[in-house]
Amino acid sequence: MESLTIILFERLGLLLIIAFVMTRTPGFRSLLYRNYSVKMSIVHAGVFGLFGMASTVTGIVIHEDGFFSHQLIIFPVESQHLIVSMSLVAIVIAGLLGGPILGLGAGVITGIHLLFLGGVGGLANALVNPITGLLAGLTARFFSNERVISPLKALFIGVFPPVLHMQLLLIMYTDRLDMITLVNTIGLPLVLSNSAAIAIFTAMIGIVLREQENEAALASKQALTIAKEALPFLKKDSPFDVASGLANLLYTRLRLAAVTITDQKEVLAHKGLGDDHHQFGDPITAHPAQKAISMKKIQVTHVKSDLICTHKKCSLEAAIFIPIIEDDNVTYLITFYFRKAEHISPVEMMMAQGLGQFISDQLNMLGAEKLKAHIRDAELRNLQAQINPHFLFNTLQLIAGLFRENPAKARLITLQLASYMRFNIRLVSKSLVELEKECEHAEAYTSIIQERFTGRLQINFVKPAELSNIYIPPSTIQPLIENSVQHGLKNVTDGAKIEIIIEKENGRLAVLVRDNGSGFPTHILPVVSLQPLVSHNNGGIGIYNVNQRLVHLLGESARLHIRNLSYGGSEVKFSIPIPNQFEEKQVMG
Q1: Alpha carbons 383 and 86: distance in angstroms, whole number
Q2: % helix / strand / coil in the chain, to the nearest 5?
């Protein structure tokens, strides 16, 4: 008995090596996720049936004199010999993983093989395998809430198949006087080896499941990483640039057989196998692709014919179609191609779903940001382009008076007003202007204001001689000067001063507007640039708009800094980098 137990455990080691190799195959892993189908059930029944046959071939033959034969059992044995094998291990595992149908199928294959080999107990050997497979499958349904039965439970379950085997031998061969002796000899070794093998195999399955869970976690992490890396491509305006960038990124990072990016009609980019016939401009013909676009859901095909490829020798046989949805419309369709249908595992599906969701979210986010930016930019431009009717009316009155007293001065102020108005009208179509143009606009305004308040207001405008290649949001300096005139100096009747100082310092351009007026009320000073203060006429709105434009176009470092001066008056200051580098420089002509 001891020697038989040792031999069976030696055979057990060989079977576990085979089992370990099986757990590495994609088909076996699909069983763990209980993805059953008629085709796959037949395949798995055949695989586990072959596993059971291999267990029989590596079994032991017991002679009538008690001698053990260690040779492979390939041909039928003599009628007085008894075959002792580990086939029940394969059958139990098949039933526990695939249910009663798979267990019964694998048991029938193994049983037929044992019946062919014959020997004492041949019929009992043949019957115990399908019965065990059926019972193991029913047992699996009892534990259906568990992804895999624990090794301890498997150890307990593994006791019963050998016991059933011994009972069948005793029942069916009552005429053999030596059957009780044989059962006593093989019973305990079979129970120990079978239960241990089943427990070890289920432990292997648990390890495989943990590996897959880790793979799923890594897949989710990788999907998020790839989605972040895809952001620069998604920001591009051309759909062809977006598609080409995404195809190269996905093909490189995911190591797929091929990747195709399409819109709703045609191929925009293809990377990988089949690039000689999957080309730019090809129409979308695959039914699952059209279905993914119409239903806005991921579609999977495991059948090569569904791909409708015109190239007969195309090596792509399966695919996942991932719709990228923006504003409830499919903007792009990403297709993951595979060489074999078995390569589409739950991990690949999880990766596809994660990428589809992440990229769709990013497109919607980018679209919302662009729309918000366009709306905000348009509102700010329109606000800044509005000419204060009081300023226009007062300037026209000034010009009318000057025509009687000083026609030359009147013509000069008229030209300054025309330049000022022309600049304001063009604001609506510009994001950035040359600093020289902005200074001309501010100087046109100060010339008119100084003429209106001759003898009461002094304006000093200091700027560098070289201002080329520096860009600034339009109508940025003039509203700050206007705020000083209308609010800061409103109650100053004599000696009013405004200083506009533009200077370069530490790689930045600093712009400062300072007056000697009454300053800002203390209670609005902290928020005057952060929110529109409608109750303070145009002063609060003008400064708020300038600050918004600076921050939106040039960043937080360009924000307005406002303070009241200790000796009276206020100071508004901001700085911008030199030179400004922007993708879009809309220079005012």
Answers
A1: 86
A2: 60, 15, 30
β-pairing, 457-462 with 496-505?
parallel
Q: Is the preceding peptide bond at 579 cis, omega within 30 degrees of 0?
A: yes
Q: What is the DSSP letter of 484?
A: I
* Residue 155: both structure tokens together: 């150890």
Contacts of 90 (CB under 8 A, 6+ apart): 15, 48, 49, 51, 52, 54, 55, 106, 110
Amino acid, single-letter form, for residue 107: G
Give the residue from 446, 428, 454 showing the smallest Cα distance to 391.
446
pLDDT band at 581 (very low <50, low <70, confident <90, very high): very low
What percent of the chain stands above pLDDT 70?
Answer: 86
pTM of the model: 0.46
349-361 exposure pattern, b = at least 16 Cβ within 10 A, e = fewer? bbbbbbbbbbbbe
pLDDT band at 270 (very low <50, low <70, confident <90, very high): very high
Residue 273 gets which letter from DSSP? T
* Residues 450/510, Cβ–Cβ less than 8 Å: no
Cα torsion through 19, 22, 24, 29, rounded to 10 = -110
Q: State yes or no: pLDDT of 285 exceeds 50.
A: yes
- Round to the nearest angstrom and report the end-to-end CA distance of the chain: 103
CA 382, CA 261: separation in Å to the nearest integer? Answer: 40
CB of 548 closer than 8 Å to CB of 540: no
Whole-angstrom distance, CA of residue 233 vs CA of residue 237: 9
Contact 100, 134 (CB under 8 A): yes
Residues 287-344: tens digit of each pLDDT: 999 999 999 999 999 888 888 887 888 889 999 999 999 888 899 999 999 988 878 8
| CB neighbourhood size of 137 (10 A) | 25
